[in-house]
Amino acid sequence: MRRPLCLGLLAFALTLLANPTGSLLFAAEESGAIGQVTELRGQVETRRNGVLQSLSLGAEVSEGDLLRTGPGAYVKVAHEDGSWVFVGADSAVVFSQRLLDPDGVGRKGILTLVIGILRTKLFGSPWRDSFEVKTRAAVAAARSTEWIVESRPLNTAVLVVEGEVAVTAKGAPDRVLLGPGMGTDVPLDGVPSPPAVWGEKRVADVKARTSPR
């Protein structure tokens, strides 16, 4: 029962990877490990250099890796500075780019959430440019904060847990700034909704899907 969904996610991701000029992806300047799997549940697979394999606890994640999770699965990838990314069930995400200055401080980070849900938290010194989560509909960027992004075929939702996140409509100048506890919805080819406090049920749902169980 799992394969049709996972194959669909993979086909979507591979379509984006094969069309970088029209997709959300940015090519990494150089390859190398950018994180390590510190938590994992269920079936999680990675595609690297055209090879698909199961992901295991303690495995390294490199720039350009596509990670996908099955139903009920999740994976947490931690960076050396303490920052982490938690990918929820039925999701596909590409660790597109991570650049560091010579002193080891982050300069630019990019995740591409193809579909599904993730939660990321940045620690240490603020990123000098920004850390971005890109989807088909929007770009969510911050320097030091914690936030949740959910990407569906026709819309993107962003909720800020801590700090501030700027959310910009894909291919448009429309932008909103979210503070702690604020969220926005961005339809495909649309503009972000005004910052708003989500209902308790919705907040509890996205937090539960981006937390270990």
Give a written overview of the molecule.
About 10% of the residues lie in helices and about 45% in strands. With about 210 residues, it is mainly beta. The protein has a single domain, classed as Jelly Rolls (Sandwich). It has a 17-stranded mixed sheet that branches. The two termini are about 20 Å apart. Residues about 1-30 have low confidence and may be disordered.
Q: Under the CATH scheme, which architecture would be assigned?
A: Sandwich
CATH topology type: Jelly Rolls
Cα distance spanning the termini:
22 Å
Low-confidence stretches at least 5 residues in length (pLDDT < 50)? 1-31
Helix content: 10-25%
CATH C-level label:
Mainly Beta
Query: Given the helix and strand composition, which structural class is it?
Result: mainly beta
Mean pLDDT: 83
Name the overall outline. Answer: globular
Rg from C-alpha positions?
Answer: 16 Å
The profile of the biggest β sheet is: 17 strands, mixed
Q: With helices defined by DSSP (H or I, 4 residues minimum), what is the helix count?
A: 2
Helix and strand sequence: HEEEEEEEEEEEEEEEEEH
What fraction of the residues are assigned to beta strands by DSSP? over 45%
Q: How many individual β-strands?
A: 17
Keywords summarizing the entry:
17 strands, Jelly Rolls, disordered N terminus, single chain, 213 residues, 2 helices, mainly beta, 17-stranded mixed β-sheet, 47% strand
Q: Helices and strands in order, then pairings?
A:
Blueprint (H helix, E strand, L loop, with lengths): L1 H16 L15 E9 L2 E5 L2 E4 L5 E3 L3 E4 L4 E5 L5 E4 L4 E9 L5 E16 L8 E5 L3 E5 L3 E7 L2 E8 L2 E5 L5 E4 L3 E6 L8 E2 L2 H9 L5
Parallel strand pairs: 9-10
Antiparallel strand pairs: 1-4, 1-6, 2-3, 2-5, 5-8, 6-7, 7-9, 8-9, 9-12, 10-11, 11-14, 12-13, 13-16, 14-15, 16-17
